[in-house]
């Protein structure tokens, strides 16, 4: 069911099984029939861990969404709240419990805190007089959720904002806890590298937590060779640019959530004769996207311009395979053909889906506006005219294009110029406020605080130095058969991934100067292993690096890392972890101040 | 060897009883045992003696002394009794001494005479005084049962979790019962009492009369009753010298015995063991000890001294001023081996081994005999088991030697049983040593478990021995050495004469980073002893902040707790401390504390943002944080900072517009306000506003263009386009007209589009031919392909050819 998690060098199914076991154990603690009341935010991530069938096996009969006033009627013995430890949720729970019908059959209440039990929340429940009503109050440490064979995410939406805007390290603490869980399952990671303030803090917490567990010596043979912790604010640039890989574009245009995407249904209408297109489906088409689908695994990380040729080649192969049936003469041959049929039909279905998606995306990417936007982005990233007001951005504002798009471009310009000249910055701000409304001053303030949109300090633009040293702009990019990670943005090589690449070879010592320009400290820590657990690498065996993006990662960066993993002489394979899978739009949105 | 069974006494046909010496008592008792209140804890536990001066009629002039000894008579504690008259003493399962006073107050002392706590058995008991009291053990813990002066019973089944239960009244009870005891059935404590010829059973609701089945007639009073160690059996001693033995449920009689002694016995206790062959009771009088069971004859011993019986799981301990003995039914394995003329495999093996040591060939004969019967495995096992039941190390050794000898002739005999027995015996011999004085038998030891035994050693402050045992048995550190070290540390912190620094250093030196040691537990103990400074020092060594912080809070070191919580990175912990601080400090101090802890401050701000908006404002005020204060106000109502000056102006204007023109203007952005004005035909006003707010020309043009196109006011649009040269070019005009599907208007502007964008504009209005001409003229390859891609159908065929030709020409050149 989750076989795709075990395809990679590190079998992430082990983690999935571990968290599933923990869930089952908790459910079995509450004997009898149960209803689960969900904190809505958790349902998505939980879907990746346990389907309804698992819950059903453990006598979960009803599921509700957590909301105020009275609980819906349910003839069950146990009511279990699955919630994040948030005070406002505690108030709702208390309301639910207090309005429980006393005359009805007595029911047992339980709380499962995800991912951490909180004294603060329990105090709140106590103040509200309901703490005693709960028989089991436990925590379910679901920190890192396996998304794919090489990808883990905490799906913590507010992580970046909390860390960089509100100096709230909660998600860093959870990240550190998640890394401890990972180490318990996959062995101590002998070397930790990091860049950035948050990375430093996570490393400190890990070292501290290790000290707390001195009692239990970890005797698992280490799977990972290195851990690289990267702050998102070391590389603010990459997420702002439009991703140009297949998966990246799907995310940019339609948004991928918990590995699912919702697409306009028209293109997926079943082609039946005589229908006359009368009953076109109106509900969005929902597809799960992960490497369990063979075709998707092949094309997801390609530059979109290279996807078309793969699809047409595939189409030929498949139709040829279907043609085979005419050549099947003997019963044995027919039987063999039939046995392959399900696989072929699945492949054909998958091909049809992706052809439709590719068409949808192509409609967008061939539009003039997309082209103009991309041109401006690429100019900024290659360092052209970053220091003056950009005409295209002006036009976008004047035409009231979506605010997120405008902010994304302005921020990109600011980042590519190490901050904007005060005059330029003021101009943009005024334009935005006058056009979109003064309430957005709070959002602008947030962006400034996060370092995305700021005045240039000391009148020096460091970006060109960084760009040249790290070779962030590649003019000769090959989108079809890439030789460098820059293919994921058709020219721009993501800074974060370049840092990872340089760390593995030749090492960061070669770029000390640039590292000093980038914000936050860079460091290296060693976690000594007992002699019995030290790894002896076979010649030619690649190292495995766990790279953790604190504050989010984009699909394009994931694609670039996968590209590095597959390089024949790369020497390093990557497993990617993050607080949230995101793109520029969702990122900016998370930083926008919502009207109260 | 013949004399080995000399102290074996048969009872009936099946069982033997033997009595052997455990210790000659080390104590130097001044008074007779009979003058004292005596309490001895089971499982070889300590003995407490309190000379009872209150029994005498006259008030005591001297205060009595409470002495506590080990089972070997080593003094553990001695203290002057300063409280009220004591009725009864008893040991709890945790080896705490419970002293029941006449007024119903129970004082609890530790093994070393350290006062722990006290509790009362209730008002009723206080009023009517305590007549008699019993301490009993149940599976939940230790209970206290009280008989008051009003002949009512009150009991608590667990002193650890005190719940008093007053038992129902016995109807018509005028005098104290002649004897009574607590029973424990179905996890509930009952009281069985005898009044004259009647027996009553009290549970928490009812009082019922019970009659033992098969009780001999003629009983007019019960003098003594005894319940077995496991509450399974009951024995009754009547005034006719008759003993009834049966189940505690009083449903079944096991046997009876008439001893013909009518004097009330001093003590009567059961003497049996798990899987006993015989159920027997030991009855003690002043000078006589009798073991009776289902046999016509009893075993009799003469008591030289005043003695005291302590029932155990598998026998009875008997101590007097000079000696401490153990009386028990001989275990099966020992009986098989040592019984005279026994041919049991174990017995033969023991013989064989002895002959072997004598280098006699008989060894071989014996061995063969066992092997021929195929009983060698059994023989070895028997010897191992019997070794466990022997008290004397020389006997243990000779049995183990025999087992080891027999093992040599067996293939694949699993060694663990033998090894474990050697280990267990080594531990048992160590703790039975007279200096330690815990005379546990093998069965008791197994029942008690090594963990509890270690706890008891710790309780006796025998830390080195406990650690040695842990190391010897290779117990995991967390369960073993660490736990003991932690206990040692807890004891250490109570040494008031040593300075905080020294104690902390000594503890850290010994404990270091030993896994599983909880420094916070030790610190909690130090705090409990009033040594807060020491506790703080110890907490420094605690790596788990989750443990550190709550204790610091409890000790009112909130600020330290705050910095520790911050260090840990656990925000939940930080919040907990913050809320604690908030309640503890006044607002000003609280805010000052926050100021020094930026991380806590920002967390608290988040908390306030969601929970207490007003506090947030105060917080910003306190910090002189105008920027954030401004944002705060914007959030609440909008009003501060430079950009907002414009905004206020806009708001004023919008209000005026609403008054003068009607319609909705408030809350629109400036851009939308101007657009609305244009859409409403107020062009003058719109331009005025644009000027006032310095809207850049470019944006104004875009704005007007969009608004006019929306209105489809083509005339005004054309006028506007000619008002001056467009700062945004004319392509947008073409685009917007086409968007409104007005090709006619679009064409007007297409001609005015600059050369750079002309091709695009022409294509937009659908003039492919002209677009081709322009592209060819400009010799722009990209534009040529763009036009070509627009050539569709036959109509554009000529144009396409034209472009191809132009291309070919360009290539030639």
What does this structure look like?
The complex is a heterodimer of chains A (596) and B (813). Chain A has 596 residues and is of the alpha/beta class. Chain A has four domains: 3-142, Sec1/Munc18 (SM) protein, domain 1 (Rossmann fold, 3-Layer(aba) Sandwich); 147-212 and 224-237 and 496-529 and 549-588, Sec1/Munc18 (SM) protein, domain 2 (Rossmann fold), CATH 3.40.50.1910; 246-271 and 286-366, Sec1/Munc18 (SM) protein, domain 3a (Syntaxin Binding Protein 1, Chain A, domain 2, Alpha-Beta Complex); 369-461, Serine Threonine Protein Phosphatase 5, Tetratricopeptide repeat. Helices cover 46% and strands 13% of the residues of chain A. Chain A has 23 helices and 15 strands. Chain A has helices at 13-29, 40-49, 52-57, 87-98, 119-127, 159-165, 170-186, 197-212, 237-240, 246-254, 294-299, 307-327, 331-365, 368-381, 391-398, 403-416, 422-436, 441-449, 463-469, 495-504, 512-517, 555-566, 584-591, and strands at 34-38, 60-65, 78-83, 108-113, 134-139, 145-148, 151-153, 191-195, 226-231, 256-257, 260-263, 285-288, 522-526, 543-550, 572-578. In chain A, the strands form three sheets. Chain A has a seven-stranded mixed sheet with strand order 6-7-15-14-9-8-13, with helices on both faces. Chain A has a five-stranded parallel sheet with strand order 2-1-3-4-5, with helices on both faces. In chain A, helix 20 (495-504) packs parallel to helix 22 (555-566). The two termini of chain A are 43 Å apart. Chain B is an alpha+beta fold. Chain B has a domain at 8-332: Methylamine Dehydrogenase, Chain H (7 Propeller). Helices cover 45% and strands 20% of the residues of chain B. Chain B is built from 31 helices and 29 strands. A five-stranded antiparallel sheet of chain B has the order 1-2-29-28-27, with no helix packed on it. Chain B has a four-stranded antiparallel sheet with strand order 3-4-5-6, with no helix packed on it. Chain B is elongated and about 140 Å long. The model of chain B has no long low-confidence stretch (mean pLDDT 86). Chains A and B meet through helix 5, helix 7, helix 8, helix 15 and helix 17 of A and helix 16, helix 18, helix 20, helix 21 and helix 22 of B. Chain B: Pfam families: Vps16_C, Vps16_N. Chain B: GO terms for molecular function: actin binding. Chain B: InterPro entries: VPS16, Vps16_C, Vps16_C_sf, Vps16_N. Chain B: Residues 349-376 form a coiled coil. Chain B: One of its GO terms (cellular component) is HOPS complex. Chain A: This is Vacuolar protein sorting-associated protein 33A.
């Amino acid at each position: 069911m989750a076989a795709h998690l075990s395809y990679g060098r590190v079998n992430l199914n082990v983690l999935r099984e571990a968290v599933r076991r923990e869930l089952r154990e908790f459910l079995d603690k509450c004997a009898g029939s149960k209803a689960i009341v969900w904190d809505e935010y958790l349902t998505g991530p939980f879907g990746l861990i346990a389907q309804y069938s698992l819950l059903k096996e453990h006598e979960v009969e009803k599921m509700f969404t957590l909301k105020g006033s009275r609980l819906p009627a349910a003839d069950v013995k146990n009511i279990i709240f699955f919630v994040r430890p948030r005070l406002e949720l505690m108030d709702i729970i208390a309301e639910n419990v207090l309005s429980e019908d006393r005359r009805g059959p007595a029911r047992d209440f339980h709380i499962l805190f995800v991912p951490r039990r909180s004294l603060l929340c329990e105090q709140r429940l106590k103040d509200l007089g309901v703490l005693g009503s709960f028989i089991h109050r436990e925590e379910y440490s679901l920190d890192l959720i396996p998304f794919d064979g090489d990808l883990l995410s905490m799906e913590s939406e507010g992580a970046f904002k909390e860390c960089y805007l509100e100096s709230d390290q909660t998600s860093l603490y959870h990240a550190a806890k998640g890394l401890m869980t990972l180490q318990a399952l996959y062995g101590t990671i002998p070397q930790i590298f990091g860049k950035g303030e948050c990375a430093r803090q996570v490393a400190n917490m890990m070292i501290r937590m290790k000290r707390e567990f001195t009692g239990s010596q970890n005797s698992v043979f280490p799977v990972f060779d290195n851990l690289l912790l990267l702050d998102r604010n070391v590389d603010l640039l990459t997420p702002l640019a439009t991703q140009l890989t297949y998966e990246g574009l799907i995310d940019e245009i339609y948004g991928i959530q918990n590995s699912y995407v919702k697409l306009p249904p028209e293109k997926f209408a079943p082609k039946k004769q005589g229908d006359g297109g009368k009953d076109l489906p109106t509900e969005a088409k929902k597809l799960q996207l992960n490497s369990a689908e063979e075709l998707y695994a092949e094309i997801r990380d390609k530059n979109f311009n290279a996807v078309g040729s793969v699809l047409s080649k595939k189409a030929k192969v498949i139709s040829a395979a279907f043609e085979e049936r005419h050549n099947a003469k003997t019963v044995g041959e027919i039987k063999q053909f039939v046995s392959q049929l399900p696989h072929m039909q699945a492949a054909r279905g998958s091909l049809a889906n992706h052809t439709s998606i590719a068409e949808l995306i192509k409609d967008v990417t061939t539009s003039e506006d997309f082209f103009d936007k991309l041109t401006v982005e690429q100019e900024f990233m290659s360092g052209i005219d970053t220091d003056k007001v950009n005409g295209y951005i002006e036009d976008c504002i004047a035409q009231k294009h979506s605010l997120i798009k405008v902010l994304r471009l302005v921020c990109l310009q600011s980042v590519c110029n190490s901050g904007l000249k005060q005059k330029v910055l003021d101009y943009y701000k005024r334009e935005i406020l006058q056009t979109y409304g003064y309430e957005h001053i709070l959002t602008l303030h947030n962006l400034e605080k996060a370092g995305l949109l700021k005045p240039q300090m000391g009148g020096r633009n460091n970006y060109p130095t960084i760009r040249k040293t790290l070779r962030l702009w590649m003019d000769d990019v090959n989108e079809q058969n890439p030789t460098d990670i820059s293919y994921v943005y058709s020219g721009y090589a993501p800074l974060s991934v370049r840092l990872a690449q340089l760390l593995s070879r030749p090492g960061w010592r070669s770029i000390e100067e640039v590292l000093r320009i980038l914000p936050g400290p860079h460091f290296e820590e060693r976690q000594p292993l007992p002699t019995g657990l030290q790894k002896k690498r076979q010649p030619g065996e690649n190292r495995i690096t766990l790279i953790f993006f604190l504050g989010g990662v984009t699909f394009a960066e994931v694609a670039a890392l996968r590209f590095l993993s597959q390089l024949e002489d790369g020497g390093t394979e990557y497993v990617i972890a993050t607080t949230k899978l995101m793109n520029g739009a969702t990122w900016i949105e998370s930083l926008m101040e919502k009207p109260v | 060897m013949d004399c080995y069974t000399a102290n074996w006494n048969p009872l009936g046909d099946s069982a033997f009883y033997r009595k052997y010496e455990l210790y000659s008592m080390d104590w130097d008792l001044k008074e007779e045992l009979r003058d004292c209140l005596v309490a001895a804890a089971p499982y070889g536990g300590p003995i407490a003696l309190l000379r009872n001066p209150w029994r005498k009629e006259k008030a005591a002039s001297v205060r009595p002394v409470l002495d506590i000894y080990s089972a070997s008579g080593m003094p553990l504690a001695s203290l002057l009794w300063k409280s009220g008259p004591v009725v009864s003493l008893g040991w709890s399962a945790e080896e705490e001494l419970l002293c029941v006073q006449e007024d119903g107050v129970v004082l609890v002392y530790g093994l070393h005479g350290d006062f722990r706590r006290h509790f009362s058995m209730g008002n009723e008991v206080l009023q009517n005084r305590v007549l008699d009291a019993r301490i009993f053990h149940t599976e939940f813990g230790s209970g206290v049962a009280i008989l008051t002066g009003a002949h009512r019973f009150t009991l608590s089944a667990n002193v650890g979790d005190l719940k008093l239960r007053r038992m129902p009244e016995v109807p018509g009870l005028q005098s104290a019962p002649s004897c009574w005891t607590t029973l424990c059935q179905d996890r509930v404590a009952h009281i069985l009492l005898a009044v004259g010829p009647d027996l009553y059973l009290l549970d928490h609701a009812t009082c019922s009369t019970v009659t033992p089945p098969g009780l001999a007639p003629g009983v007019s009073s019960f003098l003594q009753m005894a319940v077995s160690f496991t509450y399974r059996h009951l024995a009754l001693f009547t005034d006719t010298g008759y003993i009834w033995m049966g189940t505690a449920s009083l449903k079944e009689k096991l046997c009876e015995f008439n001893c013909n002694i009518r004097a009330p016995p001093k003590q009567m206790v059961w003497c049996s063991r798990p899987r006993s062959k015989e159920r027997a009771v030991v009855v003690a009088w002043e000078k006589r000890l009798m073991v009776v069971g289902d046999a016509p004859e009893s075993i009799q011993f003469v008591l030289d001294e005043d003695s005291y019986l302590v029932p155990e799981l598998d026998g009875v301990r008997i101590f007097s001023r000079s000696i401490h003995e153990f009386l028990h039914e001989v275990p099966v394995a020992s009986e098989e081996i040592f019984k005279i003329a026994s041919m049991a495999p174990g017995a033969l093996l023991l013989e064989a081994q002895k002959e072997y040591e004598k280098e006699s060939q008989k060894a071989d004969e014996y061995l063969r005999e066992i092997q021929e019967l195929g009983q060698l495995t059994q023989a070895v096992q028997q010897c191992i088991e019997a070794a466990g039941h022997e008290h004397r190390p020389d006997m243990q050794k000779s049995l183990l030697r025999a087992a080891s000898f027999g093992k040599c002739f067996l293939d694949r005999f699993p060694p663990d049983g033998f090894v474990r027995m050697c280990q267990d015996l080594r531990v048992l011999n160590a703790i039975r040593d007279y200096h330690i004085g815990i005379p546990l038998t093998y069965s008791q030891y197994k029942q008690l478990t090594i963990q509890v035994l270690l706890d008891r050693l710790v309780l006796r402050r025998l830390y080195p021995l406990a650690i040695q045992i842990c190391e010897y048995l290779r117990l995991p550190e967390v369960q073993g050495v660490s736990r003991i070290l932690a206990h040692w540390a807890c004891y250490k912190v109570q040494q008031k004469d040593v300075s905080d620094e020294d104690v902390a250093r000594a503890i850290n030196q010994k404990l270091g980073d030993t896994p599983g040691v909880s420094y916070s537990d030790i610190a909690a103990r130090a705090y409990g002893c009033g040594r807060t400074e020491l506790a703080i020092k110890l907490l420094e060594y605690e790596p788990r902040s989750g443990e550190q912080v709550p204790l610091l809070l409890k000790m009112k070191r909130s600020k330290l707790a705050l910095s520790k919580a911050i260090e840990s990175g656990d925000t939940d912990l930080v919040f907990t401390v913050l809320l604690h601080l908030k309640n503890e400090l006044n607002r000003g101090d609280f805010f000052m504390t926050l100021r020094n802890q930026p991380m806590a401050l920002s967390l608290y701000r988040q908390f306030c943002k969601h929970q207490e908006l007003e506090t947030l404002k105060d917080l910003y005020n306190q910090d002189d944080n105008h920027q954030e204060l401004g944002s705060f106000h914007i959030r609440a109502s909008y009003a501060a900072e430079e950009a907002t000056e414009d905004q206020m102006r806009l708001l004023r204007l919008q209000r005026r517009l609403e008054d003068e023109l009607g319609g909705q203007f408030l809350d629109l952005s400036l851009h939308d306000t101007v657009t609305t004005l244009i859409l409403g035909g107020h062009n003058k006003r719109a331009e005025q506003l644009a000027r006032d707010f310095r809207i850049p020309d470019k944006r104004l043009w875009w704005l007007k263009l969009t608004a006019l196109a929306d209105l489809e006011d083509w005339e005004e649009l054309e006028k506007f386009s000619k008002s001056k040269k467009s700062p945004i070019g004319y392509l947008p005009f073409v685009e917007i007209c086409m968007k409104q599907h007005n090709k006619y208007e679009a064409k007007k502007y297409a001609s005015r589009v600059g050369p750079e964008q002309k091709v695009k504009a022409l294509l937009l209005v659908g003039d492919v031919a002209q677009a081709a001409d322009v592209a060819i003229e400009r010799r722009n390859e990209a534009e040529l392909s763009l036009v070509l891609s627009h050539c569709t159908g036959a109509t554009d065929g000529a144009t396409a050819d034209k472009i191809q030709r132009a291309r070919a020409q360009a290539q030639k050149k």
